[in-house]
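Mods, move this if it's the wrong board.
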Amino acid sequence: MANTNRSLHLFAEALPLSFSDQGSGRAFLVLHGGAGPASMAGLAEALGGSGRAIVPTHPGFAGQPRPEWFHRVGDLALAYLALLERLDLRDVVLVGSSIGGWIAAEMALRRSPRVAGLILLNPVGIEPASPDRPIVNPVALPVAERAAYAFHNPERFAAVPSTPEAQAMLAANHKAMLAYAGEPFMHDPMLRARLAAITLPATVIWGESDRIVDVGYGRRYAASIPGARFEPVSQAGHFPHIEKLERVMQLIADLPAAKGVEDDGQDPQDQGAGGRR
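Not the wrong board. Structure tokens:
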């Protein structure tokens, strides 16, 4: 299975965009969070085994340029809808982690006929239920505590940047994240109300050990999307697709819109996008 790194320009050639593209068949647009595109590599490889996984790098992350005018989550949503158009993709399942989940939700709200379903992995974007339970900014924590907030088993799964270059990249990624969602931090006070307009089959997958955003936040997120399923995952934190990849793959497969081409050769776009709600 080849993994091709590609790049193109969007918005009258004004926005450079890089993305990886692997596999064939049912398309999944995989949207990373603040940890960058590397945090989605294992999931993308698994999805690419039976489908097509496209992982864009948000402008400003992983050394990619970000124009000054491009600085909102809504900008990212519009860019990725334009990417689906450019690649002529149909019946796409959006898979977003953390802020990538927020981007996916914004894309779903724009009701593109090219999008068939929504998988959100510990997404952010809605306002916390209480000021006493804010969304935690990992960079504001002591370095020794950050991994424990993000992972159930940090000793096994946390990747700590060990070189000056890796540390600089982490800092640049965080700066880009703040450009998109720094104030208010990682949420839009109006998003929860707007989520009621989503009509796609949706599943919110939640690592129960997440200490960046707790499981109650996840339940509120799912309850805000009509008919969405909420699927807690034990022994996983903010990145359930890293700590419990097999379980996450099972849950993605359970979304009717995520089904690939059937054995009888029928194309998924001929099967409709109806789902269990």
